From TrEMBL:
Motif placement: TonB C-terminal box: 888-905
Domain TonB-dependent receptor plug, residue spans: 70-173
Coiled coil regions, renumbered to chain: none
Protein known as: TonB-dependent receptor
Gene3D superfamilies: TonB-dependent receptor, beta-barrel domain (2.40.170.20), TonB-dependent receptor, plug domain (2.170.130.10)
Start and end residues of each TonB-dependent receptor-like beta-barrel domain: 329-872
Keyword annotations: Cell outer membrane, Membrane, Receptor, Signal, TonB box, Transmembrane, Transmembrane beta strand, Transport
Membrane topology, as annotated: Multi-pass membrane protein
A Pfam family per the record: TonB_dep_Rec_b-barrel
Endpoints of the signal sequence: 1-25
Organism for this UniProt entry: Luteimonas salinilitoris
Similarity section: Belongs to the TonB-dependent receptor family.
Length: 905
């Protein structure tokens, strides 16, 4: 049995033993029950108010803050909290979030970036910053969490159930990132963090260091007798990324060398080196103007620049022009070894750059009107911009017209799917190679400059009326208006052409060759792409696919909400919770282009849109029983707005003659009239708390999706508005493929979690603890429609587990964590920059941390040192083909070692 399930069983058994013994251990001087959240506030508000009450330090402080947030919330939530400002344990906030029950991270280029909640990918959820919806830098809605430094985030609350007062919530859940509130500290705090970083793969490409650093600092202070608070934080990351990657073109069976068996169609052996530089700045000004008015202005700004060099060998094998196979060895229907003759390897030196800029500003004003009334006015604005450059250059033995070819032997490791190649030619010798089009692709290179821009402005006005008696403690109501506009632009896309078809590689551009030994290849030529770029003629490319990457989607959402908050006793049972409703009016529109008959030089502007209303009722009930037991019940209606690229107003129009000699209309494109995914959600959770120091929970959930969005071909689409251009179709009706709202399905599962300080079981284990969770999720949803293949929804791993073992005592601390997820389908940016679905293999990521904090009263008081090792086992990332289960990609990213210090004044 796997390690995490063994540890989880031990942890759950420990929790049940404590439950049986009715253990209620407490720290000295604490009350029996943690203070509940103030009535009419959400969990995040209560956490901010209570920050300065915590007396424990280190790892346990963060754990107990998170437990208090979970226990005091009226919704079913998960939470993480920094043990101190700037000291969340992970290098990315995504890694921290991924450790929560029912959540899982998807790695992008070796870093955890997007988050699935309860088996649904990032586009089904929503991310907030201080309670406000955030824009995204990708092509859709999913937020890339590595844009937010963990050093600047003080806490995270994940809402798993709907709450009428929570504006901008998602269908799978809502992630609320929280920065500090300076008046909650009550004292000046100055911190400084510095860490040196090294990647275990070393320098794969010349000019890219395998070492980097992270620095951060924060300042929190109070003035005017505690009426004015200021918090400022800065974090910089200069982090190397190294990767060995292999990718298959596919596995045809209609090959001449071994017909009927899967044969490798082509191969890419790549070495990637990335420089990631992120600068983040957080600022908060909190002003308590009077006893009746508090104003908070908070801002977050970051830039994230990435520069990647890819050097690799790409070779057509079964799909290569003129190749032949010999010496084939077949196992279980796959050719696992053999020899290809007549191959023309393409030696690529690519360079990709990405410049991201993210800004979020919010101004919140809270008012008190007498003893019973309060109000809030919140104004916010966020903006995200991404600019990219993707450059490809090719070299090889000669152009496709040249008769010079090579011979290669290959052997495939069946366990990993990774092949080993043996070529005859030397691809590190510049005298053997030229800049050219060795693959016969019709170009000697390619360059493009895509861009994304996302803007969101919102205004919220709300009020609360408190009651002295009755089952309802208060009623909240208000309105929120949000205006969002997202634009994608393809920018320049162009072929790179050499005037004479091929030229020698300039000597002054050459660098050391790249080692591709992980696939058996001795090496591949390396050169500076910037130095050879002036040799090419830029031939702007015009294509319908490029026009389809230009679109704008605008959404105007008006939300009205009302929520009655419960706080009463039913006998010995304490009843808290809320019942409420949201009314959401959506006005969406999109602009794009129609490209008739592939004529990208004559696009026709088009637009479209829709308006619709949603009624979203919600109910959250929490029953508090003796011995710190709690039973929660939640019922509500949820929605997630469609993907941005599905809403685009783009069309490709053509006429096919293979079915009818007179022609038949056909086309595809987006759908600006799409309505959301909608679901009814039911949640039940049992929780047992142990004096604020630990807890055990067991939860079940069920989502009935009334609708789903999938691509569907309509056979009676009216094409009469378009010119047939010389054709004479019998009918103006034809087939059109577009995203449509269709049949939904069910998503259901359970989650178990435990957090246990082990001294509650046996005193000699003082300082040791375990945090563990396990979730199992199933689905009957067919994401590609009732006629599509039986596949799971994107983001769904049937099994997800997390285990953290920690020790903390007398300044010494250590923790080891393992997060695991079973195979799943993920949304991955593929060729052309569009999202596609991939079948991603199971992962087990192990991280380790050890540190020491010098005690108060010593000369080094306030200083702590830290050693971290992330991805200890160098876990590979793998993708597989849907139809045959064979390897599509194999990636290893190495382990990261960080050594650093933290100083708190």
């Amino acid at each position: 049995m796997k390690l995490e399930r063994n540890l989880l069983s031990v942890a759950l058994s420990s929790a049940m033993l404590m439950f049986a013994a009715n253990v209620n251990a407490q720290t000295a001087g604490e009350d029996d029950t943690p203070a509940p959240a103030a009535q009419g506030t959400r969990a995040d508000d209560a956490e901010a108010v209570d920050l300065d009450r915590v007396t424990v330090t280190g790892i346990r402080r963060g754990i107990e803050n998170a437990i208090e947030t979970k226990q005091s919330s009226t919704s079913i939530v998960e939470s993480i909290s920094a043990e101190d400002i700037g000291k969340l344990p992970d290098i990315s906030i995504a890694e921290s979030i991924a450790r929560l029950p029912g959540l899982a991270a998807q790695r992008v280029a070796g870093r955890s970036s997007t988050i699935s909640i309860r088996g649904l990918a990032e586009n089904f959820g929503t991310t907030l910053l201080n309670g406000r919806e955030q824009v995204s830098l990708g092509h859709n809605r999913g937020v890339e969490f590595d844009q937010y430094p963990s050093e600047l985030i003080n806490a995270v609350v994940v809402y798993k159930t709907p709450d009428a007062s929570l504006v901008g919530q998602g269908l799978s859940g809502t992630v609320d990132l929280q920065t500090v509130r300076p008046l909650s500290f009550g004292e000046r705090v100055i911190t400084f963090n510095a860490r040196a970083e090294e990647n275990s793969l070393g320098e794969l490409n010349p000019g890219y260091d395998d070492r980097g650093y992270r620095i951060s600092g924060s300042y929190i202070d109070q003035f005017m007798d505690g009426r004015l608070g200021v918090a400022v934080g800065y974090a910089r990351m200069d982090s190397p990324g190294q990767a060995n990657r292999w990718e298959s073109w596919g596995y045809p069976t209609d090959n001449a060398g071994s017909p009927g068996n899967f044969l490798l169609g082509g191969s890419k052996s790549q070495a990637s080196s990335v420089e990631n530089v992120r600068d983040g700045l957080m600022a908060v000004v909190e002003f308590k103007a009077s006893d009746n008015w508090t104003s908070i202005l908070d801002a977050y700004y970051s830039t994230f620049d990435k520069s990647e060099t890819l050097r690799f060998m790409e070779t057509g094998l079964a799909w290569g022009a003129g190749t032949t196979l010999s010496n084939a060895v077949v196992e279980d229907g796959q050719v696992v070894s053999g020899t290809f003759s007549g191959v023309r390897p393409v030696l690529r030196n690519d360079r990709n750059t990405q410049e991201d800029e993210l800004l979020a500003v919010g101004w919140n004003n809270a008012f008190e009107f007498g003893e019973r009334w309060s109000g809030v006015a919140d104004l916010s604005y966020s903006k995200a911009e991404r600019k990219e450059m993707l450059l490809e250059t090719y070299s090889g033995l000669g152009s496709a017209s040249n008769t010079r070819t090579d011979t290669v032997d290959f052997v495939i490791d069946r366990s990993s799917g990774l092949p080993t190649f043996t070529y005859r030619e030397d691809y590190t010798d510049p005298s053997n190679l030229v800049l050219t089009d060795p693959g016969g692709w019709g170009q000697e290179g390619f360059i493009k400059f895509p861009e994304v821009e996302d803007r969101l402005a919102s205004l919220r006005l709300g009020a609360e009326r408190r009651f002295d008696a009755g089952i309802f403690s208060s009623v909240e109501f208000g309105v929120n208006h949000a205006d969002r506009e997202k634009t994608r632009r393809s920018g320049l896309e162009a072929f790179l052409r050499l005037p004479d078809g091929e030229v020698p590689i300039p000597a002054d551009a050459l660098t050391a060759p790249v080692d591709l030994g992980f696939t058996g290849i001795r090496g591949s030529i390396g050169y500076d792409t910037g130095a050879v770029l002036p040799l090419y003629v830029i031939d702007e490319h015009s294509h319908s696919d490029i026009r389809n990457k230009n679109w704008t989607v605008e959404e105007k959402l008006s939300t009205a909400y009302a929520q009655w908050n419960l706080n009463t006793d039913v006998g010995e049972v304490a009843l808290r919770g809320n019942i409420g409703v949201q009314l959401v009016h959506t006005d969406q529109s999109s602009t794009g282009f129609v490209v008739p008959f592939g004529d990208a030089d004559a696009p026709i502007p088009m637009s479209g849109g829709a308006q619709y209303n949603d009624v979203l009722p919600s109910l959250n009930l929490s029953f508090g029983f003796p011995s710190d037991q709690m039973l929660r019940f939640a019922l509500g209606r949820q929605m997630a707005r469609p993907r941005m690229d599905d809403l685009r107003a783009n069309r490709n129009i053509s006429i096919r003659t293979d079915r009818d000699p007179n022609g038949q209309w056909t086309g595809d494109g987006g759908n600006p009239e799409l309505e959301p995914w909608r679901a009814t959600a039911l949640d039940v959770s049992y929780e047992k708390y142990f004096g604020g120091r630990g807890y055990f929970s067991l939860a079940a959930f069920h989502k009935d999706l009334h609708s789903y969005i999938y691509k569907r071909t309509v056979n009676d689409y009216d094409f009469s508005e378009f010119d047939p251009r010389g054709f004479d179709p019998v009918s103006d009706l034809g087939e059109f493929t577009t995203p449509e709202n269709g049949q939904g399905g069910e998503l259901y599962g359970f989650e178990a979690a435990v957090s246990v300080p082990l001294d509650m079981l046996w005193q000699p284990l003082d300082g040791f603890g375990v945090i563990a969770s396990y979730s199992k999720t199933k689905s009957s949803i067919l994401p590609e429609g009732p006629d599509g293949p039986d596949r799971s929804v994107p983001g769904l791993s049937e099994h997800v587990s997390n285990v953290t073992l920690y020790y903390e005592r007398q300044g010494f601390s250590t923790r080891v964590s393992r997060r695991s997820r079973s195979p799943f389908i993920g949304d991955v940016v593929g060729f052309g920059g569009d999202l596609g679905t991939r079948y991603i293999g199971a992962e087990d990521i192990v991280d380790f941390q050890v540190g020491y904090a010098f005690a108060d009263g010593t000369r080094l008081e306030g200083l702590s040192v830290l050693l971290q090792v992330n991805n200890v086992t160098n876990e590979e990332y793998r993708e597989f083909y849907f139809d045959n289960g064979l390897a599509q990609t194999y990636n290893e990213y190495g382990r990261q070692v960080l050594l650093g210090l933290n100083y708190k004044f």
